[in-house]
Amino acid sequence: MGKSIYAVASIGPAKESRVSDQAARAPFYLLFDDSGNILETLQNPVSAATGRAAPQAVGFLAGRDIHALLAERFGQKMLRELDSIHVDAVEASGSVESAIGLFLESSET
After folding, report:
1. Per-residue pLDDT for the chain (109 aa), expressed as one digit of tens each?
2. How far apart, in whole angstroms, are the C-alpha atoms of residue 2 and residue 17?
3. Could you write out the DSSP letters of every residue in 52-75?
4. Which residue among 5, 17, 27, 49 has its CA within the 20 to 30 Å range from the CA of 38?
5. Do residues 57 and 74 make contact, with C-beta atoms less than 8 angstroms apart?
6. Chain centre to alpha carbon of residue 26
7. In this structure, are residues 48 and 58 in contact, taking their beta carbons and an 8 Å threshold?
């Protein structure tokens, strides 16, 4: 069985960046494994989309086999899209590094 992969919506490309308050239009997604190691930094190609950002963002993330997406807020469309591909939506805030750390710590219990 492979490791789980988690995405964090971020305003910047580094783990010290803040978690984005927009899940679909976040400028970046940082991917982590279940040990908290950063795997990849992705620039979100739909961050400036004027419409249909949620399905486009989820389509972009779908091929990366993520298990959860962390962001400060989720719109109803984003929640529906994530649910359709069985990805958990997790509200988080602060730095990306602290958010993923707290998430991983809480999912161990």
Report:
1. 458 999 999 999 999 999 999 999 999 999 999 999 999 999 999 999 888 999 999 999 998 989 999 999 999 999 999 999 999 999 999 999 999 999 999 987 5
2. 27
3. -HHHHHHHHHHTTT-SEEEES---
4. 49
5. no
6. 9
7. no
